[in-house]
Automatic annotation (TrEMBL):
Organism: Durusdinium trenchii
Gene3D superfamilies in UniProt: Carbonic anhydrase (3.40.1050.10)
Domain of life (superkingdom): Eukaryota
rRNA-binding is among the record's keywords: no
InterPro entries recorded: Carbonic_anhydrase, Carbonic_anhydrase_sf
The protein's name: Carbonic anhydrase
Keyword entries, A-Z: Lyase, Zinc
One Pfam family this sequence matches: Pro_CA
Its job: Reversible hydration of carbon dioxide.
EC number: 4.2.1.1
Length: 114
């Protein structure tokens, strides 16, 4: 069985691709703060997409209407929440049949899981 810390490691390792995507979307003249703000939003959707793509129980509940996943960003200073809504990729991802992220599949095989 994959430990929660291994799944967290995978998600944290994916942050570099999120930051690269934010830099590309913001352009060369963007400030670090602008890139960071964009990366935070992209990471919210990246995390939602990860859950939808690799969790059949979550996908099934979303398909059946028993669960709705909405992204949000909590501002620690103001206490305000910026609601981002559903992932733009949700309708595509709920059709996925994956059960483990490719980066976790190797670990599952290594410990005798998959």
């Amino acid at each position: 069985m994959v430990q929660a810390s291994q799944a967290l490691d995978v998600l944290l390792n994916e942050l570099s691709s999120v930051v690269s995507e934010a830099q590309a979307q913001c352009g060369r003249k963007a400030t670090e703060d602008e890139i960071a703000a964009k990366a935070i939003k992209l990471n919210v959707f990246h995390t939602i997409n990860f859950l939808l793509q690799y969790s059949e129980p979550i996908r099934e509940k979303v398909r059946s209407g028993k669960l709705e996943i909405q992204g949000g960003i909590y501002d620690l200073k103001s206490g305000q929440v910026e609601f981002l809504g559903q992932s733009p990729m949700q309708s595509k991802l709920v059709k996925s049949t994956s059960t483990a992220a490719p980066s976790l599949q190797q670990k599952l095989v290594a410990v005798g899981g998959a």
